[in-house]
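Q: I'm teaching a short session on how sequence maps to structure, and I want students to see two examples side by side rather than one. Could you give me a first protein with its sequence written out and its structure tokens following it? Keep the formatting plain so it prints cleanly on a handout.
A: Of course. Example one:
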Amino acid sequence: MKKKILQMLFLLAVFTTSALAQKTVTGVVTDDLGEALPGVTVMIAGTSTGTVTNLSGAFSIEVPDENSILKFSFIGMEAQEVIVGSQTVMNITLATSSLQMDEVIITALGISRDKKSLGYSIADVKGEDLNNTPQDNVLTSLSGKVAGVRISQMGGLAGSSVNVIIRGSTSLNSDNQPLFVIDGVPVANSLNNFYQGADMGNAISDINTEDIESISVLKGPSAAALYGSRAGNGVVLITTKSGSSSIKGIGVDFNTAVTFETPLKYIEYQTEFGPGKAGVHMFEESENESWGSRLDGTPTIQWDTDGVAAPLLSYDNRLTDFFQTGSTYTNNISVNGNYDEGSFRLSIGDVRNTGVVPNTDFSRSSVGLNGSYNVTPKLKVQGSISVTESGSDNRIVVDGGREDIVRSVYEMSAHVNILDLKDYWEPGQENIQQLKYKHKQNNPWFVANENLIGFSSPSLRVI
């Protein structure tokens, strides 16, 4: 019994001593101008216990003993550690960090401005963020990285035109794209580069993504004032890499990547009825409706049965049987030189794409050279030259007409196995007609392999 009483007295003494050792420390945290700092983190060093200051900069925290150390930290301020000692009230002043740097961006004519001094909204994206997942077009790399900017690729294939809309359309014109400025030089990026219904891409698609240092998106009418009426829809500033860095000497970078693409989602289509009207099966060149007989296996004379009745069935996989997995191979090598007298950067890039539509492709080869030379301590000369050649052996028609491959696939009758159309020539009549398949829509394999629309587009940019 005495032993239990002694144990209880011992525990009580320990608890009392611990309780007496703990104490509450309060105070106010201000900056070097005497202004209260809300949101300052106050931590007991070596523990996970802490608190933050309120809107008045005040805090209150329980510390275990007088040897405790409180650590005060805040973004843009130098952290401070203070031993509690006998203090119960601690008023702390945090100094502005000497490492703090205001964000500087490039505006019109290459002028550097403090971002917070601008009277309009601006978003800045670094070059390395654009190349985390390599894309064939610099603008598709920008997609999803800037609020209020909608980016869509016409037709969805590599090398297609890219449409950029900042904060919605501002006029009734079909083209509401912003003004693009590359290293201070305005570049037109119209969406009217079509040939026989095929999209040949636009000017920005010729830029090598690996050559981009940063992209700044200027929004609003105040930004337009910098470049005049051409910038009424906003401005996209593209700054290319120059080779200058904090490291002196020669450097070599090599990047290679491969990406694969496949259609994410298909539009639903009916597979219950074959071609015809009012439940009657018909398959003629003038027939384009699919409200004929049910595709329930009933023996029926069809387009490829040579007058013999065969089960009328539905082939539900014509989209996945036709479209394929696309691939893009990207390679880029660059040589950088940085010296006291100046700097340079030579870049060579190559992109090779095979599209999701059979027998479609896109390629782009580019060479870029940027350089600068310090003539005097106060005079620097700089310039750049870029040569790009992009091309394709076949671009698909995207105008929704009869030569549009996607339309042909979707409007094909559900009872036709699209794989049976691959061999589309009748023996001995290769230059006369297609294999038996006579319908209002074209054979998509024939269009993809025989109705070719290719192009080669060299471009030169000197600044």
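Q: Perfect. Now a second example for contrast.
A: Example two:
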Amino acid sequence: MPRILTGRPEMVEAELVFGRTTVALADYVTTGLVSVAVGPPGAGKTTAGLVIAEQLAEQGWVSVLIDPEGELEGLYGNCVASPDELRERLTHRDVPIVVVKARDAAEFVPYGRVIFEVADAVRKAMFVMVDEGQLFSVSRCNAEEVVEATNIVNELVGRGRKRALDVFITAHRFTGTLQRMVFAAKNLTFVGRLEDHTAWSSLAPQFRAAKIDYQDLSALGTGEFFCISRTGIEKIRMPMAQALEGVAPKARKVRRPLPSGFREWSRAMKEIPTHRLKRLTPEIIALLSTVAGLPGHQVATGARALQDELESRR
């Protein structure tokens, strides 16, 4: 029986919403979605994957969550008991989100084979989240099971687009963790907090045009990412996954700090439309600074930044 090249019609109207940022999946019809989230532990990478999995599941995808830590079973129901059960779930498509517990490469391999086999046979929209991707796709390793797991991940990434299969992989660092092919094929990237200054050299070229530097990445909080998509780079705050809302601890509200130095004021000005900046007369500035309790030197710094920004927009 001849294979039919999938045209991904489900992507034409689909979208992913991250706070105020919307990613239209129509931009990925010809390539499929290969997404990578990079950041240290606690940056919110897993939550980012869950948000994507939930949104795609609501739009017709079957989402498969590869869970090495055993954290997701309590959120989305029991893990599949075997590769055969996974094949049944993916073939019948009767469960929108399927959890696979695979603690290491050896446990992942039989499930990974099933995912690719079903995707090859069925060719209907499927999303695979590989959490802690460095366990299953490494740059250099001689262990037989790790090599096979890496090859499977590469198959999902490199050949998934024609099988209606989209992939999301998390990693701790941008280099030295995942197999190079994963980074070469990625087309939607989430870069979280950066704690290793030596890694900046590999990231800098992607951020230079947007005038984003190491300090911007190191200042990101949990759940905050720079999202690099087909339309450019935007800073986003990832919403909480629906499954986490009932179990996540309530965060204490923290007052957002106001800019202090010229550089911070200048950056804040760039996010404000010109017509609003022009309304900041000296009288309004004096009133707002009094209400906010700003010291005189901060007010003067902000006023200089405002003047420079208005002049640059003429």
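Q: What should students look for in example two?
A: Point them to this: The radius of gyration is 23 Å. Also worth mentioning: Residues 128 and 167 are 5 Å apart (CA to CA).
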